[in-house]
């Protein structure tokens, strides 16, 4: 009996001191609403539990993503300004990029094929032809890091854009034809404040 008591006390000390593997447990996953799995979706309000009101810090982002991703932070220059960002990693691949300034989330780029729009119809990998019959009026050529992509405004949305990519051997700076775009797929869903 004394050995069992000593073992329990020793285990309790390890668990509460952060020296055990339980220090890596995201306790928010223990909430009853997460017991049967919770899927993250993209809407005009944001991604999962992340919105324009979410502070740009690791704890708030991890909670907004249900602790499903490993986060790493960084800084970069955008239009001459220093911007903070977080990469959300899944299986050591970048699944989301969350950035902003002034301590608030301003932009979320979704590349994870397991994250879809709230209606479940659109996710990375969706063919251009499933959403658009032509690019005119809805799409423009990407710029900067997305110069190889075509950016299309999501229908009925103030904050979402769809970025499509594929093979095209045309002149740099021009948009591919609608026939070419029909073969392209969605590479990123972007939510922007």
From TrEMBL:
Keywords: Lipoprotein, Signal. Residues 1-22 form the signal peptide. InterPro entries: DUF1131 (IPR010938), YfeY-like_sf (IPR038714). The keyword Signal applies. Pfam families: DUF1131 (PF06572). NCBIfam families: PRK10718.1. This is RpoE-regulated lipoprotein.
């Amino acid at each position: 009996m004394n050995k069992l008591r000593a073992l329990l006390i020793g285990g309790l000390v390890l668990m509460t001191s952060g020296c055990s593997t339980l220090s890596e447990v995201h306790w928010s996953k223990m909430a009853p609403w997460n017991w049967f799995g919770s899927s993250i979706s993209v809407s005009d309000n944001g991604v999962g539990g992340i919105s324009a009101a979410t502070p740009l810090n690791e704890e708030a982002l991890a909670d907004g993503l249900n602790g499903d991703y490993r986060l790493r932070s960084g800084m970069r220059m955008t239009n001459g300004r220093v911007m903070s960002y977080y990469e959300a990693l899944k299986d050591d691949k970048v699944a989301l990029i969350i950035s902003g300034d002034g301590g608030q989330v301003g932009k979320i780029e979704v590349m994870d094929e397991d994250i879809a729009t709230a209606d479940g119809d659109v996710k990375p990998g969706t063919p251009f032809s499933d959403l658009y019959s032509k690019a005119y009026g809805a799409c423009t050529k990407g710029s900067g890091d997305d110069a190889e992509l075509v950016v299309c405004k999501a229908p009925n949305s103030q904050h979402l854009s769809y970025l499509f990519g594929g093979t095209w051997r045309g002149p740099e700076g021009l948009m591919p034809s609608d026939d070419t775009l029909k073969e392209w797929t969605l590479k990123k869903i972007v939510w922007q404040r």
